[in-house]
Amino acid sequence: MSLFSEVPAAPPIEVFKLSRDFREDPCDKKVSLGVGAYRDDEGKPWVLPVVKKMEKKLHEDIDKNSINHEYLPILGLEPFSTAATKMLLGTNSKAIQEGRAFGVQSLSGTGALRNGAEFCNKMLKQTVFYVSTPTWGNHNSIFLKSGFLEARKYRYWNNESKGFDFEGMMEDLKNAPENAVIILHAVAHNPTGIDPTQEQWKAIADIMQERKLFPFFDCAYQGFASGDLDKDAWAVRYFADDRGFELFCAQSFSKNFGLYNERCGNLSFVLKSSDNIVNINSQLTVIIRGAYSNPPAHGCRIVEGVLNDSNLYNEWKESIKIMSGRIMSMRQGLRERLEKLNTPGKWNHITDQIGMFSFTGMNPDMVSYLVKEKHIYLLSNGRISVAGLNPSNIDYVAESMNEAV
């Protein structure tokens, strides 16, 4: 008998199973609203013009032997991390000016979360973390596999109002144990698309300071949510500069640069002082060495090149506005069609939400009908990727949702 004959099958990862089912579906009307990846008006992936320009430049640099395929340092390409941290915290950040903010290149947002979680557990001895209800499907796995012993939840989505459960979140944070790690979605909450207002963020900061809780931001959509890099980073900047928190922030460049398969990310640190940065980096070096040793270069060179070139940077910001603007128009279009069809219920939450996803409020039976009968693929919790809507399929999706409800 084989040594491996008793290995059981693991449950499939829902979002990737949806993508596979979609690809294998022969139906002409099929629509993919599952995976979180941007699509243009024709339903195709979009390689940003600035990305193409940087890739051309990188090829030229290789021909000139000015760059090569040697290993990057374990902590990554420093000019990339410096630029990414500056993009997050802003050019006028007190933390940057005082030398107490820095970044470490990571394998996209997932890798940044993992590196930060392992550091929290091993170096800060933190064992309890909180996630929103609901949250991104990978948060729990990342932190539990990093050594955390207990996953707890704070209320976030109010299914009756189809909005933010602010009072529930506040109550749960008030009852959190000191030193617990609180995972906060910096902008465009996944999967709900509902964010706290600035006044609510201030109240959240009050409770977290009072209870001595540690903020760990997950920032996957800066610029991609509203089209404004500064607006989308408001919460992180408020915690870092206005309130003086020490914090971690996992940044992903998958969405706002369209670099999904390059695994380009950054783990930003904001500290009280710069005194211990050398020691912190030495421990991060040990963590990363035991995980993947060295990060990839291609994606981070693209991002660094754009962030540090004023012309490319401005062009990139225009591309962000195009992507976020198209998604906003699809939100509005879906809501208008559902209301025109007199679909039962209220649908203003679709346009109240922000970012790539909409938490539709549809129950599993409705979702099952859409998937099995209408060949519209979405998560079982009712989350859709608004980026998957386009002028060719939005009427069909709205009519199908109307039937399902």
Verbal overview:
The chain is of the alpha/beta class. It folds into 2 domains: 14-46 and 323-404, Aspartate Aminotransferase, domain 1; 78-308, Aspartate Aminotransferase, domain 2. The protein has helices spanning 14-24, 49-63, 78-89, 94-97, 108-123, 139-145, 166-174, 198-211, 229-232, 234-242, 254-257, 277-289, 298-307, 310-340, 348-352, 364-374, 394-404, and strands at 31-32, 101-107, 128-133, 150-155, 157-158, 163-164, 181-185, 214-219, 247-252, 264-270, 357-359, 376-377, 383-385. A 7-stranded mixed β-sheet has the order 2-10-9-8-7-3-4, with helices on both faces. The longest helix is centred in the C-terminal third of the chain and has 31 residues, at 310-340. The chain is globular, with a radius of gyration of 22 Å. The termini are far apart.
Quaternary state reads single chain
Strand content: 5-15%
- Count of helical stretches: 17
Average pLDDT over all residues: 97
Residue runs with pLDDT of under 50 for 5 or more positions: none
Counting helices, strands and paired strands, the structural category is: alpha/beta
What is the alpha-carbon Rg in Å? 22 Å
CATH architecture of the largest domain: 3-Layer(aba) Sandwich
Would you state the CATH class of the largest domain?
Answer: Alpha Beta
Please give the number of β-strands.
13
Largest sheet: 7 strands, mixed
Tell me the CATH superfamily of the largest domain: Type I PLP-dependent aspartate aminotransferase-like (Major domain)
- Terminal CA distance reads 51 Å
Q: Tell me, what's the shape? A: globular
CATH topology of the largest domain: Aspartate Aminotransferase, domain 2
Write down the secondary-structure element order: HEHHHEHEHEEEHEHEHHEHEHHHHEHEEH
Q: What percent of the residues sit in helical stretches (DSSP H or I)?
A: 40-55%
Question: Going across the major beta sheet, what is the strand order?
Answer: 2-10-9-8-7-3-4
Number of structural units classed as domains: 2
Keywords: Aminotransferase, Cytoplasm, Pyridoxal phosphate, Transferase
Subunit structure: Homodimer.
GO molecular function: L-aspartate:2-oxoglutarate aminotransferase activity; L-cysteine transaminase activity; pyridoxal phosphate binding
Protein name: Aspartate aminotransferase, cytoplasmic
